[in-house]
UniProtKB/TrEMBL annotation:
Residues annotated as transmembrane: none
Keywords: Hydrolase, Protease
BP terms from Gene Ontology: proteolysis
Listed name of the protein: Spore protease YyaC
GO function term, MF aspect, one: peptidase activity
Top-rank lineage group of the source organism: Bacteria
Length: 185
């Protein structure tokens, strides 16, 4: 169990923590206590070509709009399977990485987040082979898992994904106690 979970989260049968906005804020606050925002990089993984997989680049765009200085993966410049290695190679070695990606889970967990003090493995649900990334990770459950993950990601509600991305960015802003446009100032 991660020390960054709160009472608003619940544990699934697999032992993963699922949480809502309050737990996200707490997660970001705890990271902020341990690390300078100037040495944090958000890596928001996904593509703008798939509704479900757009959680990362949408979140990255919202984080950049709120003034976070070190964001990899936005709508104009997604960090996807083809660009991930090149994009992460440019992150300064002394930075702490918070990786954000969409995932599939059980139907009761749609709209929740898995917050961990460890890396995430991008494209795991679609059997991709990408390296683990992040010192911390957040996976947003955007749809229920099933036999055709690519199809499920394509058929995911854009409204849900946009709301989750906004919630992630708002929680980061609140957790790091930033005014809009003030990150790294």
């Amino acid at each position: 169990m991660s020390k960054f979970t709160s009472m608003t989260s619940r544990t699934t049968a697999s032992g993963h923590k699922r949480s809502g906005k309050e737990a996200l804020v707490s997660f970001f606050k705890q990271i902020g206590v341990q690390h300078s925002i100037d040495k944090l990089t958000f890596v928001c993984i996904g593509t703008d070509r798939s509704t479900g997989d757009a959680l990362g680049p949408l979140t990255g765009s919202y984080l950049a709009e709120r003034g976070f200085k070190h964001v990899v993966g936005t709508l104009p410049e997604p960090c996807d399977a083809t660009t991930l290695m090149q994009r992460i190679s440019r992150i300064p070695a002394d930075h702490i990485v918070i990786a954000i990606d969409a995932c599939l889970g059980s139907s009761v967990d749609i709209g929740t987040y898995i917050c961990r003090e460890r890396p995430l493995v991008p494209a795991e649900s679609v059997k991709g082979e990408l390296p683990a990334i992040g010192h911390y990770s957040i996976a947003g459950v955007v749809n229920a898992n099933g036999p055709k993950p690519y199809t499920l990601l394509q058929m995911t509600s854009l409204h849900l994904v946009m709301n989750m991305a906004r919630e992630l960015a708002e929680a980061a802003q609140e957790g790091f106690r930033l005014q809009t446009g003030s990150a790294g100032s």
